[in-house]
Sequence to fold (859 residues):
Amino acid sequence: MNKILLFFFSFSLLASITFAQSPITGIVKKSSGEPVPRATIKVRGTNITVSADDNGAFKIDAKQEPPFYLQVSSVGYKPQDFQILRYQETPIELVLVESALLDEIVVTSRRRSEVLQDVPIPITVIGGRAAENAGAFNVNRLKELVPSVQLYASNARNTTLNIRGLGSTFGLTNDGIDPGVGFYVDGVYHARPAATSTDFLDIEQIEILRGPQGTLFGKNTTAGAFNITTTKPTLTPSAKVELSVGNYNFIQAKTSVSGALAKDLAAKISISGTQRDGTIWNTREERRYSGQNNLGFKGQLYYTPSEKLQVLLSGDVSIQHPAGYPLVIAGVTTTERSAYRQYARIISDLGYQQPKIDPFSREINTNTPWRHNQSIGGISVNVDYKIGKGTLTSTTAWRFWNWDPTNDRDFSEVAALTKSQGNSRHDQYSQEVRYAGNLTDKLSGVIGVYLLGQNLKGLSQTEEVGKDQWRFVQTSNTGSQALYSTPGLLDGFGIKTNSTIKSLSAAVFAQVDWEVLKNLHVLPGLRYTYDKKDVDYDRVTYGGLQTNDAALLALKAAVYANQQFTTKVDNNNLSGNFTVSYRPSHNLNVYGTFSTAYKPVGVNVGGLPTTSTGAADLSVAVVKPEYVQHYELGAKTKPFKGAIVNISLFNSDIKDYQTNVQSPQLGVNRGYLANAEKVRVKGLEVDGSYQLERFLTLNAALAYLDGKYVKFTNAPLPLEETGHTELVNGVATQVAFKDASGGRLPGISKWNISGGTELSTAGNLATREGRYFIAGDASYRSEYSSNPTPSSVLNVKGYALFNARLGFKSDKFSLFVWSRNLANKNYYEQLQAAAGNSGLYAGVLGDPRTYGATIRYAF
Fold:
């Protein structure tokens, strides 16, 4: 009996070994049934790899018993894992899905998956890999790829993110205003513009929607939205690493690891770090500024117990401690003030040399260190549950932002405005519940509710002047003004501000897509919004000469004074849109849209101008809501295979446009918000792309934008007109404002062009099969105003930028060299008058030429 058992055991073991070593034969095919030549087949978890032949056929010896996985990949196709449960004698067929062609891109902008060309909204889509390859590792760099996007930032807090010239105030940021461009990551709205400065982590796709979108998204968006999705964790173990190095000691490392924790639970951890030396040299401190020092982390858990239920838990944090972002002196202009108050005279009287006007030497001589530290992050839970033909989604999130800056606001070695520290802490809580899907064969849509609570605190925000400030505020050297030269009067004199804005925004929104006739769709949408803001503002002076002299105290109070106020405001709005779309074929989608939108009431927490009695002018504490009427005509076409051409014409009329005003009063040198009576932006956008198999990709986009103040009767004076006088009742009277009606809006170039191309060919790098490629992209922006009121000096000249890259890529491995601003173009991103309006102005410089290499590996 024992011999029989031993015989059967030996036979089974031999059969098992023989069976385990049986080779697997098969063929790799496209979804159309055609073979995929030269695909790579690998036994997961081993080094066993083979390549298919030109007919897609392969043979591989797994050297193990089932079950196991075969990893199949080929350039131009989505990599896929196939589970082998048993051996079979007949060849197996493995089908790969082609990577999305330009006319097959799927978007989720209407809260459901749709082909881009079928959506009657002007949208630009940038894949995560495409953004990485172009060096766009944050939103700021995307503006070179999308002409309709304007992003200007002197630091993370002072960020203006606009689409078609609308969205946020241009210049210094005031925390009391809401952005008009929605910024979403995995369905979570990010309320503070500083979110645009963080590095991307595992981006799958970036959708940039243009025009009002309040009936689709949780927070009302008057100008458009960024809808960013990240890659989800996978049950299949995977990982990727990326390393980039470049000049200015640039180094950026990214990695992510994903895999199963349990049967239906996948996890992923992603880390990103960026380091770069500064590009601006401080001759006084002998150190570099405008560098990068970023660290980002993101963790996710993805629970999929059934086809109906998906739960995604995400947590992320980004910490940035860069060498701060100083402005360089760009010029000095003559104002309309008296000769005694011109910048050159002031500097001479103080015993300083005139500043060096050589901005592109990239040197500064400031005496206060620049610091722009921030941390930003949060936690969110997204639950998708399929009900009927749609999906019920709940998105719950908490996010925070800590801001710790120091700025030298006189931009020079002079001890005038020596310190500006707008320390902030922001917490936001949001909840969105919506249902989206097909209600019938002819009717689909989305309906949802949204709540957003924010608590924004200004924590001992400091403005401080130095020993030289007396000469900047002195209007003459006679009478009481002569007392400004009293030794120590303004030395270390400043204000500390503690403020709180508690806001609540609640909304109900809905939009449907109804095919009323064959190929004719009608898309009505409505949104009701309620907004409430409670403000507590308290500013206290400190420092300077301690005295009881009434005359000296009055002079100090003219520079800084205590200020305290509270205000509560709320409002509601009903807005909506109506779109008609005609889609006679897959190659044409023609649509027209009329929509209304609204940006909620704003509040001023940057200091208020004072009345004749010296009290805060509470009449400007609250800024009226902004109302938008928008018209658009568009066509999305596919004229021939591989080609897309889209065009849109639009007109946006804005009533009570919220804009930034720079007061001539020093105590509000951060500026405050006001309303321009009416603004209009109209334009034309054309974008096209062409893809020839896998060998050639072309894309180009053009935007013509015409933005004007239709009516702005109380605009701030431009820098060169500071001190302007007019006859009022026969008396020469100095004025602080002017009628800017008909003037152009800041930050808008009339002509915005971008384009790019990639040419590739099949080849091998060592044993790896892939494609060699050469690629480049270019962008051009014509001149634009860099001041709330049109100015003869604060205009940024037009500029063109060129980027290029060259290398090798395969599905799992890439290696390439790159250069940004290849021509080393000197250009400004922004010009800004120094506080006090004495004639000095400074600029935010664009990066010089950078270059380096990137290696990327996935396994």
